[in-house]
Design a protein that fits this description.
By secondary structure, the protein is an alpha+beta fold. It has ten helices and 13 strands. Helix 4 packs across helix 5. The chain starts with 5 loop residues before the first strand and ends with a helix.
Amino acid sequence: MPAKNYLFTSESVSEGHPDKVCDRISDSIVDLYLSEDPYSRVACETLTTTNRIVLAGEVRGPASITKSMIEETARTAVKDIGYEQDGFHWKNSAVDVYLHEQSVDIAQGVDAAGNKDEGAGDQGIMFGFAVNETDVLMPAPIYYSHNILKALADVRHSGAEKGLGPDSKSQVTLAYENGKPVRATSVVVSTQHTPDLDTDAVREIVRKYVMDVLPEGWMCPEDEFYVNPTGKFVIGGPDGDAGLTGRKIIVDTYGGAAPHGGGAFSGKDPTKVDRSAAYASRYLAKNVVAAGLAERCCIQVSYAIGVSKPLSLYVDLFGTGNVDEDRLAKVLMQSMDLSPRGIREHLELNKPIYARTAAYGHFGREPDADGGFSWEKTDLVDSLKAAF
């Protein structure tokens, strides 16, 4: 039997964290290509360090996209995050672009040809998860960790809190009783700040937004509230620590509350099942829980490179379901075409909608009118209910 009373912790990192800067740049490059040609292929990796941005990877897209456009896109992403520091500045940092044409060996397996449908861009396993702990059907620890940092980012961008810097991290530990979250037992926030703010001042700024985010009565004890525990945090971002695309996959998904297949999302166009199938799995799991078929749902799918159909679909309801899991798996396979092409078309993924996913989680977000976060829709609820 799973434990009913326990502590569980998840962390988040802000858009200004070095790795998230890289995710944002890589996804902005994806958006650049998809805005010019919705069927572009992109696999863009980014490295950042002191006043340097390096882009590498493989692309296949219109010749109209020049190296200078790619460089400008990277600089704009950094500017939007808010880096104008001596050690990392959107205008002054060197930008090295090493993107080249996609391998023809990969392309022949992925492209549709003759009677062959479009195949998966790689082999691998992907997971989707949903749980009824929050309104958006996300695990509570990662949900609150994201929202604390999003609140701090909002007031930094608006100018309401002028002393905060772009780089920050949060960590929330929640107590679960009878399997449900009931309160925070500790909260950790480290946030970059200007030299004129001392530790106590930063602590009081952070406290205000933590208390706004957590449900009433959930605030942790004072001696378990940690803000900048190293003392000060003035040097941050890529100037303080090098960043890489795809290094925060647990932050991107479920905060450790569910399995992860290992593949990163950012920098990849939607033919890459690391991204698109993880979105589809979340979409299906969320609709299962939203339909009231279970309190908790985990879905795994697997693929082989160049093969269009998924090799497997596995459903785990953790003993919380009121339907048969084998029957549910068959219904889900009928509810959505899980081929790479089927996923892209069902969720309308061939759009420039990815830069916005790079921070504060790919899941648990509100669907946008332009198609962003389409995998968060619950439009399968009625059909799933009818199937049972």
